[in-house]
């Protein structure tokens, strides 16, 4: 089983709130906006998204953790700071749904008129390195290609709109570096299936979608295809160093948001398959890493808090279960 080791500690990120409810979340929207796949978007739509994403890398920090930080750095820092409390349990899906929404709003604040887009890595699993998302002009640039000593980082990306971007963080530590990637050939017996594409094929994802219980589905998606994409883009075979899509500060790479919009899309597809799944939410909170293995955290509830660590207002799980609610109002 592929799995990303999330090590940053923040226990109790998701905790019970009083019984306050967002009124907008209880209402439905009449005209949900369509989130498109990158391959289905027009060139103009892709360029508009990229222009806004570059803008986010230049806007001043909202958190103010470091004088050189940008708004994009804030996303990486928040994800790293909350790392332990937002992975490997039920809150993984609603927290990242909210996180993508916060990023979508940041794009729109930069003049973008569209919605978040997704990379359909299922459709591209046969040859992920040829996916449209890696185009140097209408995409995010390609694999790290630089030479020389890059410290603990993989080679830098040398083409595309983010070739000059220098993420500030590695985890929550200040370690400014060039945006880096290290594509992995996960299946050396088949040159057309690199970036661990053989771990997120249509057949594998269809099997993930057969899970009828929420936490079984969440676990299969998170530890399977979701983790495989992180590894495939960022742990190139034989390099011994990792790219920016892992570990905890993975939003350093702007492709993170297309990856997680796809994860959200798969959750949406799973929910649409059975309307009783709209508010399906079960599992247990994570205990601290040093807790006895036989102990189990308290059960999750729809009234649990989704902390954004100051990047945005905290949310409530129930507000992020139905994409057709007024506060989300989108579909795929």
From TrEMBL:
A Pfam family found in this protein is Tyrosinase
Does the keyword Zinc-finger feature in the UniProt annotation?
no
Q: Where is the signal peptide?
A: 1-16
Q: Which UniProt keywords apply?
A: Copper, Metal-binding, Monooxygenase, Oxidoreductase, Signal
According to the UniProt entry, its GO molecular function terms are: metal ion binding; monooxygenase activity
* Keyword Signal applies: yes
Q: Which domain of life is it from?
A: Eukaryota
Known InterPro entries for this protein? Answer: Di-copper_centre_dom_sf (IPR008922), Tyrosinase/Hemocyanin (IPR050316), Tyrosinase_Cu-bd (IPR002227)
Residues forming the Tyrosinase copper-binding domain are 87-104, 253-264
For this protein, the record's PANTHER family field holds:
TYROSINASE FAMILY MEMBER, TYROSINASE-LIKE PROTEIN TYR-1-RELATED
What protein name is recorded for this chain?
Monooxygenase
């Amino acid at each position: 089983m592929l799995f990303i080791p999330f090590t940053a500690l923040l226990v109790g990120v998701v905790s019970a709130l009083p019984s306050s409810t967002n009124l907008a979340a209880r209402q439905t929207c009449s005209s949900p906006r369509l989130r498109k796949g990158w391959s289905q978007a027009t060139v103009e739509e892709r360029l508009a998204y990229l222009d806004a994403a570059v803008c986010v890398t230049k806007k001043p920090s909202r958190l103010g953790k470091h004088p050189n930080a940008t708004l994009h750095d804030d996303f990486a820092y928040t994800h790293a700071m909350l790392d332990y409390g937002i992975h490997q349990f039920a809150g993984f899906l609603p927290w990242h749904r909210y996180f993508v929404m916060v990023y979508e709003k940041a794009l729109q604040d930069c003049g973008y008129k569209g919605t978040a887009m997704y990379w359909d890595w299922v459709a591209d699993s046969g040859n992920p390195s040829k996916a449209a998302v890696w185009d140097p002009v209408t995409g995010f640039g390609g694999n790290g290609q630089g030479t020389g000593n890059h410290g603990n980082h993989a080679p830098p990306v040398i083409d595309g709109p983010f070739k000059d971007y220098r993420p500030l963080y590695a985890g929550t530590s200040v370690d400014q570096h060039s945006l880096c990637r290290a594509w992995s050939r996960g299946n050396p017996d088949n040159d057309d299936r690199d970036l661990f594409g053989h771990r997120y094929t249509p057949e594998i994802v269809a099997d993930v979608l057969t899970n009828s219980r929420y936490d079984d589905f969440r676990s299969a998606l998170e530890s399977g295809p979701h983790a495989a994409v992180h590894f495939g883009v960022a742990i190139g075979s034989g390099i011994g160093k990792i790219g920016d899509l892992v570990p905890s500060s993975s939003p350093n790479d702007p492709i993170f948001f297309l990856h997680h919009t796809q994860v959200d899309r798969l959750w949406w597809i799973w929910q649409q398959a059975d309307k009783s799944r709209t508010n399906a939410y079960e599992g247990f909170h994570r205990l601290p890493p040093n807790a006895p293995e036989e102990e189990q955290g308290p059960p999750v509830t729809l009234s649990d808090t989704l902390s954004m660590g100051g990047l945005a207002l905290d949310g409530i799980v129930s507000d992020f279960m139905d994409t057709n609610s007024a506060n989300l109002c989108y579909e795929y």
